[in-house]
Amino acid sequence: MADELTADEIRTLLKLEPHATCRFVRITYLSPQSIAAGGLPPPFSDGRPMGSALHFIVTPTAPVRLHRIRNDQLYHYYLGDPLEVLLLHSDGTTERVVVGPNLRGGEHLQLFIPGNTFHTARLTGRRRWFLGASTEWPGVVPADVRDRQCPRTGGEVSVHRRGLARHRGFRRVGSGSAQGDSGEPIFPACSTIHAR
Is the pTM of this model over 0.85? Predict the structure, then answer.
């Protein structure tokens, strides 16, 4: 039955809305319980919901854009094609992980992404669509998301550009932007690189 669904049908059935980083999402849970201000260390010291969750869909023309959130998060595979996730760790190392149903082939049903880890993703397999979810703790508020922005330190920019350049399919374009196989930018161009 999942093979009969189209990306447009899934967006309609799940009421997914356009989003800056994961392209089409719907928040499915935001904890009514909060951690009080001062209950967590910075950058969460102003208080946060206990947790949050959302559905998202990825298509060939709508990959996950390069972004990071401050919060730890867990990607979950639900239906469709596998999702290749590129993680750019703060120490300059990179990691590619495939989230999908082929456990014998080394794919993962879930992927833990540590807080503040830049990441992007694209489809593999038949490249039609991936339906998944993300759960986050503490819960995400808009200030926790850094999307489509250059990192603020020159060293961090160069580390992440090198990380993207090392991976086929996630390639550098022009002066600091990168794109996936679809040709769409996933690391936006930076006219100015900010130093500390």
Answer: no
Rounded Cα distance, 181 and 171, in Å:
8
Render pLDDT for 134-178 as a digit per residue (tens, 0 to 9): 999 999 998 898 865 544 444 454 445 555 555 555 543 333 334
pLDDT tens-digit series, residues 12-39: 999 999 988 888 999 999 999 999 999 9
Cα angle 40-43-49, degrees, rounded to a multiple of 5? 55
Helices (H), 5-153: 7-13
Three-state SS for 156?
helix
Q: 130 with 82: CB under 8 angstroms? A: yes
Q: Which two tokens stand for residue 115?
A: 């807080």
The CB-side HSE value for 117 (13 A sphere, CA atoms) comes to: 21
What is the residue type of 7?
A
The pair of three-digit structure tokens given for residue 185, joined into one six-digit string = 């930018």
Q: What is the DSSP letter of 125?
A: T
Nearest to residue 23, comparing CAs of 61, 53, 79, 73? 61
| Integer CA distances (angstroms), 190 to 37, 60, 94, 149, 153, in order | 35, 24, 21, 8, 12
Please choose, from the candidates 122, 68, 126, the residue with its C-alpha nearest in 3D space to the C-alpha of residue 99.
122
Q: How far is CA 156 from CA 64, 65, 91, 173, 178, in A?
A: 20, 17, 9, 18, 15
